[in-house]
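Ticket #4471: structure export looks truncated?
Reporter: QA, pipeline team
Priority: medium

Steps to reproduce: submit the single chain below to the structure queue and open the exported record.
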Amino acid sequence: MRILHFLAFLLIMQSCNKKAYEAPVDLIPEDQMVEILSDFMILNSAQGANKKILEDRLKNPLGYVFEKHNIDSAQFENSNAYYTRNIDQYSLIYQHVKEKLDAKKQGIQKRIEIQNNVADSLRKLKRDSLTKTRKKNRIYNQNQVKKNIEPLVELPRK
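Actual output as written to the record:
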């Protein structure tokens, strides 16, 4: 019975041994992992927004990301597993992902604002142009009426 308790104790101690997880041979660097995870998050959002359009343009979205970054799914899985076991490093990676996505969002919002300003300016210019044209036409019509009335006014009265 003591031997069984001793073996159980050794088994528990062995399982509690905190051995550092070794990095895989083909570990993806942190900066590239930030890029990959950012692309995954953008794809995930695009699938949520309009899955049909995404599927029409990209037959295999995950394959596209792997091909874009010259990695394969096994390499990503190994690297992701390594980083998830090193939580401080993984938190830092996700912080960089968030910063990158926020920067992209601000850039897109700025472009939308510029496009809206241009559209508003064009609408205002068109409205001003129409107003000027209408005003010119009104003045032209008034002058035409005066020219047509003057000969009538000059006619002698009987």
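Status: closed, not a bug. The export was complete when the record was re-opened. Leaving a note from the reviewer for reference: Helices lie at 2-16, 30-57, 61-68, 73-85, 87-154.
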